[in-house]
Amino acid sequence: MKTHDPIAPLLEGARLVVCCGPGGVGKTTTAAALGLRAALMGRKVIVLTIDPARRLANSLGLEELSNQPQRIDLAENLETVPESVGEGELWAMMLDQKKTLDDLVKKHAPDPGAFERAQANNIYRLLSSTLHGMQEYMALDKLHDLYTGGYFDLVVLDTPPTKNALEFLETPTRAATFFDERIIKWFIPSRRSRSLFGRVLDPGSVVQKLLKTIFGEAFVKDLSEFFETLEFLQQALQSRGEMIDYILRDEQTHFFVITSADPRRMKEALFFHEKLGELSQKAEAFVINRVIPNFEAADLEVANEARLKEFAGEDAPDEELAALSSELSKAYEALSRLARRDRDALEGLARKIGPELMQRVPMLGQDVHSIEQLLSLSGYLTPSRPVEL
Amino acid sequence: MMEQLESKRLIFVTGKGGVGKSTVTAAIASALARRGKRVLAVETDTYSALADLLDVKLLEGAPAMVERGLWATNVRAEDALVHTIRQFVPSDRVSRAVIHNRVARVFFKAAPSVNEFSILNKVMALRDEGDSPSTRWDHIVVDLPASGHAVTFLGVPRTLNGMMRVGGFAKMAGKIASEIEDPSKVAVVAAALPEEMPVKETIELGQQLEETVRRGLTMVLLNMMHEAPFAPEREALFDRVRAGAASASTPGIEVERVMEGSALAWEWYERDLKYAKVLKDAVDCPVLELPMFYEADGASVVDRVSAYLNGERDPGGELAS
Fold first, then answer.
1. Which ipTM score applies to this complex?
2. 195-224 in B: which are within 8 Å (CB) of A?
3. Using a CB-CB distance cutoff of 8 angstroms, which residues of chain B are in contact with residue A208?
C-alpha cells in the first residue's frame, strides 16, 4: 500500500508554500519543519515568518533571527546530514516591519530628502510598526523579493494567526485602496483646485474641517503630510500588489492549513478553509498537530496491577505497586477521554474536507528547539520520504 | 485570588492565541457573576470564541443574558466609532454620515489606532452607564486581541493623546489613558500556558506593558496545568515497570499504550512544573495555576474553571490526588 502522504509531492515542486491557521497550534514550528524537509529533498528553501514572537528562531535552535536571510548550517546542527540533501539549503528570516518599510521608502524615494521627511512624520513612525495590513503588505513585499530573487527554489511563508492571515491574502488589493488615489488628491493641497468655486464644491473640505475639529489640526496635518510623503509609493505598491496577486495564484503556490485536534482550533481551521474558498484559493493539505495517540480505556484491563508487578519484578513492594496501578488507571482514563475527543474532531474534519488532504502529527511531550528535534518532528509530515542516515 | 479582581470594575484579559484566553475571560466573568455581581463579558474581535464558550448568541445592540448576573456583548469597531464621533457632533445621524463619507472612511482606515481607541472608549462608556445597582455593571470583563496587539491596544490612548496634544479628542484620550494606567482601577490579566514560548511571551508582555502603558499585569492565569499521572515519589517504581515492559518479549499493544501514555503525561507534568517556575520567578504579580480539565466541550470547561476560581476544588471529582 502506498504511504499516505499529501505533503511530500507538493514540497518537491512548490515555489511557495503558505502556512496558515489558528494561533497556538505550532504553525511556525511546522513551517520550519516543512522547510527542513524540502531542504533535505535537495531544494534551496527559505522560511519567512512575520510572527513578531521569536518562535521560528526558537524552533531552529537560534537565539535570534534578523531581517536578512540567515543560513541554518545543517552539518553543524545535525549529528548526521542525510545524503538526500545534495544541493539543498535551509535559510530563515523574520520580518522586521519597520526596517522593511524604511527600505521600501528609500528604494522608491524620488529625492534623498523624502526618507528623512517620512521619518520625521508622527504618523509614519506609528504606522510603520502598528497598522494592521501594513505589516501583511510588508511581508508580501519581502516575499516578492525572495520569490523573484532567483536564489531560492522555495519560500515557506508562516502567517500570523487566523484573522490577520485573512487580511494577508487580501492585502494586494488592500494596498491599492490604502493608497487610494482619491484620498491622496484630497489630502495633498497642491493637487486640489485652488478656485473658490472648487473649494466650496469639494466635499472633502467640509469633512476635513470636521475631522480637524474632532482630531485636532496637528493630527490631520500630519496625516496629510504622510500621504504626501508617501505618494511616490503609490505606483510602486500598486504594480507590486498585482505581481504578488499573480504569485499567490500560481499553480506552484500551495496553501497549507495548520491546526491542532482541539475542537475549537478545528473550527477555526475550517473557517479559514472556507475563507480561502471565498478568495478562490484552496487548501491543499491540512496538518493536524499534537494529536493524542489512540489511547483506549479498555487497555487498562490488560495492563492491570498483576501485569505491572510482573514487569517490576517480584521484589517490588505490593502496596506501592497497588498505589501506582490505581494512579495510572485514573490518569490513563483521562488521557483516553482526550484521545477520544481528538479522534472525533479528526473524523469530523475528514467528513468535511476528505481524509486524503490530512496529515496528522502526534503529540510530543517536549517543545522543539533544536534542528535535531525538528528533524524527528518533520518525519511525521512526509512519511513517504523517510530520512536515510 | 478573586479578591484582586473583585476590586476592579474593568478587567482586560489578554494572551496569545491558543492559550485559552477566551475561556479564561468567560470563566472570570462567570465566577464574578456567581459571587452575586452584575457582570458584562465583552468580545472585541470579529472572530472570538466567547459567544460559543458562553453558549449564547450575540446580536448587535443590547447585551445578551447568559445566566443569572452574567451578560455578554460584542463591541464592534464601527459602532464604537459612531459612538466616539457622536461625542463631537450633534446627532447619531451626523456621526454615521461622517464615518460613511467616502473620504472620511479612508481617513479612519488609515488613521492609526482610531478603531482601537473607539473600542476602549465604548468599553469605558459601558462601565459608566446605569445609575442604579440594578442597571449598573459591577464588572466588565474584556476579551482583548492576542498579546502583541494587547500592548498596542492598551497603549493607544496615550499614543493618540501624545500625537494630538490639544483638542477634545486629545483630552478624551488622555483621560482614558490615565485610567488604564492605574492598576488600582483597571485589571490586566494574562492567560498563558506552562510551555516555553507562551511563558516567554507572557514575561515579555509584562515588560512591554510596563514600557508602553506604565503599569504591570494584575495576575497571570496559567491554564491547563497537567496533573502528575502518579505521585512523584513513585517515579522510580514507574521507570522500573516501564523498563520491564519494554524488555518483555510480548508486552502487548495495550501495555505499550498505557506505558507510552503515562510517560507522556509525566513529561507534561514535568514540563508544566518547570515553566510555571520560570514564569513565577520572572513576573512580579500573582500566578494562579488552573488544572487541565479533560472535557470535550468548551462550555463545561468554562463552568469548571469558573468554579475553580471561586475556590471549589475538584468540582467534577475527576482530578487525581
1. 0.82
2. 195-198, 200-201
3. 103
